Amino acid sequence: MNSLLSEQILPLTITEKLQLIEDIWNSVVIEPDQIPLTQSQKQELDRRLASYQNIENCGESWGIVKQRIIKHDI
């Protein structure tokens, strides 16, 4: 890292550093198509999307979940 940049960042408070991180992250996600993915990452995203789209994986209704919570059978 550039020493001048280091000299500017190191004295910042934690809050200021976190804000800087957020600002940098926001500038990265503006162009998500520019973020390279490995083949295994692409496969994992495809797997998760297929699982999400699977009708059998739709979860349970609020009524069923509420009954389990009330029965402490979480």
TrEMBL record:
Identification of the protein by name: Addiction module protein
InterPro entries: CHP02574_addiction_mod
Pfam families: Unstab_antitox
Species of provenance: Limnofasciculus baicalensis BBK-W-15
Domain of life: Bacteria
